UniProtKB/TrEMBL annotation:
Pfam families: FGGY_C (PF02782), FGGY_N (PF00370). The keyword Glycosyltransferase does not apply. The keyword DNA-binding does not apply. This is Rhamnulokinase. Residues 6-244 form the Carbohydrate kinase FGGY N-terminal domain. GO terms for molecular function: ATP binding; glycerol kinase activity; rhamnulokinase activity. Keywords: ATP-binding, Disulfide bond, Kinase, Nucleotide-binding, Rhamnose metabolism, Transferase. GO terms for cellular component: cytosol. GO terms for biological process: glycerol metabolic process; rhamnose catabolic process.
């Protein structure tokens, strides 16, 4: 049985999953999981990239100690948009910034003085959002130009990590599509935008196709870990592209929801959809594992709850899903709603307070207890997902019959049930480990073990179980939705 290492690194934790394929089924075992949080220091949010690298090597060591020392290859997927800068001698120039950095908004303002948001969308197919690489990069140009002057190569996070293991420099297609610097529908950087922003086009390492073997682990790594060289594969570097690859979507009436810190909702399309409705409703087009696109909307996900937990833990309250579920069940429904994507929730100092102030300002009952806060968050999220799916139906002209939810956040069964209720659609939840399975799929295809994504989806269906959620009675949901919409439109 052949084995591969799938590193799936998210914005709250990273993990190494060992994946095996016996010719019929895929098998997965979690080897190691580690926390990954942005670090706030000197007025900026950074990623501790060397700690991530160290944790990844530790994970490999654990795998080897468990007797899994013969692996064919490794692949790395991460969250989107962030990057590291290298000098012309290949050294990492600084800690990569996190997309939560407040200075990005400034970068965005400056760019929009030069190119309109509508033009950016038309040229790249990507929604204007302050987190995007383009704005971060322009922000650095404004407030830390010396860094850019020194920079020779920009590598996006999964390729930066792959570089530390293999020495190979390239930017894989799916992760490149999150930058808003890629020409819509093409596999090349949008030169005109780079020119207008006076960013040298050759700063961005060349784009490489997904599903290619890019190299192998460096001798220094092999020596340190006492292992044979392992192939390094360009899987879909973007975690969302990996997750979508692993969801058993059956027809064009199924939508995907990749659920974690963010929740990405959309459908696969052959070519970017850049209509005015898509633009007005904040949809975006990012790349899929098979060189096509995902027409999707990026939404707030578990970040709201994760940040409330930080506050509760600070107050000495320990919390887990079981406890939260009990509190949720006991609290009354539809008391107060927030617009989960309001910018005030992006990086607030105190998420609990921020939610309370929002409710106060909008003249709704203020959620006081933990149960009330959790209910306000989960119901508002589900309502927002319903809003998105209604618009997705308008964009594609197809009625959505089924929602495929995957990713860590589907462990929150309330989120899945509320999504079914709010949308009045069947929800098929699973697999939880969609991203790392999609990562392994990329490796199996590159290694020639699986032919294509269609075959891979069939194998996933046989290998991992899913859970079905059916919508509850609709009347009160419909009424509540009318109230909710008021806060998003
Ligand atoms: C999800 C994700 C989203 C992207 C966000 C920030 O983990 O990759 O697709 O919008 O992180 O990069």
């Amino acid at each position: 049985m052949k084995r591969v290492w799938a590193f799936d690194i998210g914005a709250s934790n990273g993990r190494l999953m060992l994946n095996a394929f016996d010719g019929e089924k895929m098998h997965q075992e979690e080897i190691y999981r580690f926390s990954n949080q942005p670090v706030y220091v000197t007025g900026n949010y950074y990623w501790d990239i060397l700690n991530i690298f160290t944790e990844m090597k530790k994970a490999m060591q654990i795998s080897i100690q468990k007797g899994y020392n013969k692996v064919e290859s490794m692949g790395i997927d991460t969250w989107g948009v962030d990057f590291g800068l290298l000098s012309n001698t290949g050294e990492l120039l600084a800690n990569p910034y996190s997309y939560r950095n407040t200075k990005n908004a400034e970068g965005m303002e400056r760019v929009l003085e030069k190119i309109s948001s509508a033009e950016l969308f038309a040229r790249t197919g990507v929604e204007t959002a302050s987190i995007n690489t383009i704005f971060q990069l322009y922000g650095i140009k404004q407030y830390y130009p010396e860094l850019l002057d020194k920079a020779d190569t920009l590598l996006l996070t999964p390729n930066l990590l792959a570089y530390l293991f293999s020495g190979e420099k390239n930017n894989e297609f799916t992760i490149s599509s999150t930058t808003q610097l890629l020409a819509a529908g093409e596999m090349k950087w949008e030169k005109l935008i780079l020119e207008v922003l006076e960013i040298p086009a050759d700063l961005l390492a060349p784009i490489k196709k997904t599903l290619t073997i890019v190299g192998e682990t460096l001798p220094s790594i092999n020596n340190e870990l006492q292992m044979d060289p392992v192939k390094v594969i360009n899987v879909a570097g973007h975690d969302t592209a990996c997750a979508v690859a692993a969801l058993p979507l059956e027809d064009d009436q199924s939508v995907f929801m990749s659920c974690g810190t963010w929740v990405l909702i959309g459908v696969p399309v052959d070519y970017p959809v850049t209509t005015s409705d898509a633009y007005d409703w904040g949809f975006t087009n990012e790349a899929t594992i098979d060189g096509k696109y995902r027409l999707q909307k990026n939404n707030m996900g578990m970040w709201l709850l994760q940040q409330c937990r930080v506050i509760w833990e600070r107050e000495g309250i320990s919390t887990d899903f079981e406890k939260e579920n009990m509190l949720f069940q006991k609290s009354a429904s539809f008391r107060s709603f927030i617009n989960p994507d309001d910018s005030r929730f992006f990086s607030p100092e105190n998420m609990v307070k921020e939610i309370q102030v929002y409710c106060q300002e909008t003249a709704q009952p203020v959620p006081e207890t933990r149960g009330e806060i959790i209910r306000c968050i989960l119901e508002s999220l589900a309502m927002k997902y319903c809003w998105v799916i209604k618009r997705l139906e308008k964009l594609t002209g197809k009625r959505v019959t089924r929602i495929h939810m995957g990713g860590g956040a589907i462990r929150n069964t309330n989120l899945c049930q509320l999504t079914a209720d709010a949308t009045n659609r069947e929800v098929v939840a699973g697999p939880v480990e969609a991203s790392s399975i999609g990562n392994a799929i990329g490796q199996w295809i590159a290694l020639g073990e699986i032919q294509n994504i269609q075959e891979a989806r069939k194998i996933v269906k046989h290998s991992f179980s899913v859970k079905h959620y059916h919508p509850a009675a609709q009347l009160e949901w419909k009424e509540a939705y009318q109230r909710f919409v008021h806060y998003v439109e």
